[in-house]
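hi got a favour to ask and not much time before my train. below you get a single protein, a line of residues and a line of whole numbers that encode the local backbone shape. could you go over both lines and see whether the tokens make sense for that sequence. a few lines back from you is plenty, here it is:
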Amino acid sequence: MPKKPTMTREAVIDGAFRLIREQGHEALTVRNLASYLGCSTQPIMYQFPDTDTLRELTYQKADTFHTEYILAGGSLLEIGLRYIRFAEEETHLFRFLFQSGRFSGRSLEDLIKAPEAAELLAAVRREEALTAEDAAAFFEPLVAVVHGYASLIADNGMKYDPDAVRNALMRIEEGMERGRTQ
């Protein structure tokens, strides 16, 4: 009778998530993960003979974590601020989610229509009482600005100044509101 696996798929995914969170997505190799989990590579390879599947499931876990983090903000302004703060507080996860090549070759419109953005777009629709098409048009410039700030912060191209970022986002929001009412 074959030996029962001692490491579950969930334990491997949780370990991969923690490894990326602490060391970055570049550290996610079977050897590094085995060392991190204190086991041989065999239990990991038993659960994930295809490391692409492990990376995808870890990505999904990170994406769920990110979505829950930012949607805890409530208002659209707070969601944007939390997105940027996530890049400051969870730099390795931010880079894994948004700077690891997953979205290479896609347009901003493609990214907004991606399944990963669905909950966020739904929040925009609810808060602004917009149709799906209008919500996407409203959301697009916000995504570019908020993600730009977050990327600069995650890449150490800009120091995180919560007050300056809040003021900038408030000015953008006011300008967009004026544009919608005219």
